[in-house]
Amino acid sequence: METAANELTDLGSVAIVATLAVLLGLVFVRLRQPPIVGYIIAGVILGPTGIGVVENSGSIKLLAELGVLLLLFLIGMEISIRAFVLVMFPSLFIMGGQVLAGLSISFLFGWFLNWSIAQILLLGFIVAVSSTAVAIKILEEIGELRTKTGRITIGVLIAQDIAIVPMLIITESMAGNGTIGFQTVALVVASVSILGLLVWYLNRPGKIELPFTEHFTGKRDMVALAMLALCFSAATVSSLVGLSPVYGAFVAGLIVANSTLRNEAIELTYPVQSILVFVFFLSIGLLINLEYMAENWRLVSAFVCLTVFTKSILNILLVRWVGLGWVVAFPAGLAMAQIGEFSFILASVGITSSVLNLETYRLAIAVIAATLIISPLWMVIARRFEHETKYRLLTFRSALAVTSGLEPDEFTKDHVIVLGFWHRLRVYYRAYRIALKHSIQTTADSSEEEGKKE
Fold it and tell me: Which of 84, 253, 347, 380 minimizes the number of CB atoms within 10 Å of its CB?
C-alpha cells in the first residue's frame, strides 16, 4: 500500500508540473512568445530547488532523451536540402565563426576559473549553438521568416544542426582522459562525409520511394509507427557503429524529407514529438539549481550578458561579412543570440562522460536556460530594430548621397572613403540626422493615415 501511495504521489506531482507548464506555455503564446520558456519556468518553480513538488526527475529525463531523438528526426524531415544548398557556403562560414566565438567566450571564463581544455571545448560548443525554435519565432514575429533574412538564418540553423553530430562525437570521445584521439577524428570525418554525400545525393531532382510505401500510404497508424520504427532503427545502427544515436535519427529524417511520404510523415509524427519536446524543456527546468544560481549570480549574469551581447554583435558582423546588408544582418544576428536547446544535450553528454564536473554542468544549465528565458526581451529588441531599420537604414544611403552632393543612383562607398577621417565623420553625422528626420516624418504620416482610415 505504501508503494502504491508513493507511485500515486509521484504521478500526482508530474501531473501538477505538467498542468502548470501548459498554463505558462499558453500565457507565453498569448504574449506572442515561444511556449518553451513557460515550460522551463514551470520546471524551475516546482523543481527540487523550487517549491519541491517534484524531487526526482529521473523518469522525466528518460522521456526527454526520447524527445531529443525524435526532435532531431523531425528537424531532419523538415529540412529542405535544395533551399539549404542555395545558402550553404555562407551558412557554413557563419556557423564556423559562431563556433570560434563560442570557444573564445569559453576560453575567457575557463582561464579565470581554471577549466580543463576539454571543458573549454565543450562549453564553447554549447555557447555556439542557437535555438531553432526561438529564432524561427522571432523571425515570424517581425515578418522576416520568408525573406532573405529568414533564408540565411534558417541556413545557419541547419548548419548548426548538422554540426551537432561531430560536436557530440568529440564530447563522447573526451570521456576519461579528456583528449581527442585518431579514432575520434576518423569518426568525425566519416560522419561529416556521409552527411555531405547524402546532401549531394538528395539534392537531385525527384523524390525517393521508400520500401513498402504503397502499403503505408493512406494508413495513418501504419505511417506513424513506420516513422518511429525508422527513427529508432537508424539510431540503433548509428550507436552500434560508434556514432551518436541522434546522428542516425537525423540522417533518417533527411531521407524521409526527400521521400514521397514526407508530408504525411511530418503531420502524423509531430504530435508525438511535441509531447516529448514539452517534457524535455520541462525537465530542463527541473534540473536548474536555484541555490547554485543564487550563490553564483555574478558569474551566471556575466556569462549570460557576455554570451548574448557577443553573439549578437558577431552574428551581425558575420552576416555582413558574407555580403548581406545591414537590414538583413540586424534581425538575423539578434534572432540567433540565445543558446539553443541542443546545448542541453551537449551538457548532459558532458556530465555523463565526466567531461564536465558538477559545478560547470550547473553553470552551463543555468546560462542556457537564462538565455532562453530572456529571449522574449530579445524579441522585443528585434522588433524595435526591424522598425528602425525599415525607415532609417534604407534612407541612410540616400542621405549620404545628399550630403555628398550626388544623386542616390550615382552614389557609391568610394565617394565617402576618399574623404578625410573628420570630414567623413561630419558626412555620416549629417546623413544620420537627415535619415532620422525622414524616419520621424514617415512614422507620423503612417500614423495619420491609419487614423483617417479608422
Answer: 380
Q: What's the topology of domain 2-372?
A: Na+/H+ antiporter like fold (1.20.1530)
Phi and psi at 35, nearest 5°, equal: -65, -20
pTM: 0.73
pLDDT in tens, 278-317: 777 787 787 788 888 888 999 999 999 889 888 888 998 9
Asked whether residue 2 carries a pLDDT value surpassing 90, the answer given is no
Residue 277 contacts by C-beta under 8 Å, 6 or more apart in sequence? 36, 67, 70, 71
CA angle 47, 110, 311 (to 5 degrees): 75
- Residue ranges of the domains in the chain? 2-372, 392-453
Residues 203-227: pLDDT tens digits? 877 787 777 777 776 677 788 788 8
Residue 265, pLDDT above cutoff 70: yes
User: What's the confidence (pLDDT) of residue 396?
Assistant: 47
Q: What one-letter code names the amino acid at 227?
A: M
- pLDDT for residue 394: 46
